Amino acid sequence: QVQLVESGGGLAQAGGSLRLSCAATGRAFNDYAMGWFRQAPGKEREIIAVSWSGGNTHYVDSVKGRFTISRDNAKNTVYLQMNSLKPDDTAVYYCAGDPGNTGSFGSWGQGTQVTVSS
Fold it and tell me: Among residues 101, 58, 51, which one has the least CA distance to residue 77?
């Protein structure tokens, strides 16, 4: 298992941008699928972006074209670039790791708050 630490959250205005980072410690980061999830107040946690170990990415429709997931395997870090932010993007954002690259995420960061004002 990897240990994950997110950073980069904060306050942004609607239309603005933020970049989240998730640093991993542990072995075999290259083999992990890495995901970004978010949980808004009163809502279920939802997956919003995945970077598979083979290089493919997947996004939920609500963030397509606005958010970009990327990873730097040399730095054991995954990023989430968030552009054109909306108040509905306000949530706690979590990164997660899946060692089997199957979509079963078992390692979680502590979360970082993102607040978007209108």
Answer: 51
The 3-state DSSP class for residue 30 equals helix
Residue range 67-97, pLDDT digits in tens: 999 999 999 999 999 999 999 999 999 999 9
Could you tell me which residues are beta bridge partners of residue 113?
92
Beta-carbon contacts of residue 4 (< 8 Å; ≥ 6 apart): 22, 23, 24, 95, 96, 97, 107, 108, 109
Rounded distance between C-alpha atoms, residue 29 and residue 62, angstroms: 27
- CA distance linking residue 65 with residue 4, whole number of Å: 26
Which H or E element spans position 7? strand 3-7
DSSP state at residue 55: S
- Written as six digits, the tokens of 65 are 């074209």
Which residues partner with 5 through β-bridges? 23
H helix or E strand, kind and range, residue 39: strand 33-39
